[in-house]
Design goal:
α2 packs antiparallel against α3, α3 runs parallel beside α6 and α3 crosses α11. The chain is mainly alpha-helical and 266 residues long. The protein is globular and about 60 Å long. The longest helix has 31 residues. The chain is 65% helix and 0% strand. The termini are far apart. It is built from twelve helices and no strands.
């Protein structure tokens, strides 16, 4: 792949991202130790901050892969600093996905970095750039679920276990939704270089509405039920029970009050 040169300042990690990491670390510690007076607030801040970190890494993966694929402009655009405010649309990339987590516990794909595709040569490179983001979510999900499938939960506080389970659910949903071959999503970006010109021209007008189409489908009860059945099956394969993810979401939504069932098993 092409090796691109960027200025050191283009690669310097943003203080904004460092601050988000600090929030993740502090609230993770508070969740683990039970330091917080209201554990739900600590879980909410921990999961939200960790989710934003994963969104930043998702976009960084796109940009970094594009850089080595030939688009040397990503550095000047600030995409390599992990600063969420530098993305194409901070509202779509960060704010909207966080709102959807709060509303429904879905890892909604965010916006995207702007890649100058004309600088990229080779269909495989184009596909890899699109796949890099959701693959980051897959890696994040593996890390979150590692204590479960490695049977390494001895001594892990229940609140922290539940928080990890819910965070894993978000990563799995984000990976699956991102990999859907729907125009506007990364999954379509993976297969688009292999489509004929005529097909791409016919599909192009629908790209801005792809995410809205997926969101609308998820509001259909039967589709929503089938989707989360798949998510639950994947999580169970990774060692996370329905109770873990349910109680994680219950703790996260602390404003709804404590769940008696989860309070008993904590």
């Amino acid at each position: 792949m092409t090796t691109a040169t960027t200025r050191p300042s283009d690669r310097r990690i943003s203080p904004v991202f460092v601050g988000i990491l600090a929030v993740t670390a502090v609230t993770g510690w508070a969740t683990w130790t039970g330091f917080a007076e209201q554990p739900g607030v600590a879980v909410f801040l921990f999961v939200t901050a960790a989710w934003v970190v994963s969104l930043c890494l998702h976009e960084y993966a796109h940009a970094r892969t594009a850089l080595h694929g030939g688009d040397i402009t990503v550095g000047a655009k600030g995409y390599l600093t992990l600063n969420p405010l530098k993305y194409t649309h901070a509202l779509l990339s960060i704010v909207l996905p966080v709102v959807f987590v709060i509303m429904g516990g879905i890892g909604l794909p965010g916006g995207a970095v702007f890649i100058e595709r004309s600088r990229i040569r080779g269909r495989w490179r184009h596909s890899l750039i699109s796949a890099a983001g959701p693959l980051t979510n897959v890696v994040f999900a593996v890390v979150c679920t590692a204590p479960f499938w490695l049977d390494a939960l001895d001594g892990v506080p229940a609140d922290f276990r539940f928080a990890l389970a819910f965070l894993a659910l978000l990563q799995v949903t984000a990976a699956i939704l991102n990999f859907l071959p729907v125009p506007g999503l990364d999954g379509y970006g993976v297969i688009e270089p292999w489509l004929s010109y005529s097909v791409k021209r016919q599909v192009e007008p629908f790209a801005p509405f792809g995410l809205l189409f997926v969101f609308a489908l998820l509001w259909v009860p039967s589709v929503n039920g089938a989707f989360f059945d798949v998510i639950d099956a994947i999580l169970r394969t990774l060692g996370i029970t329905d109770v873990d993810s349910y109680c994680g979401q219950s703790l996260y939504r602390f404003w709804e009050g404590s769940d008696d069932f989860c309070s008993v098993i904590r």
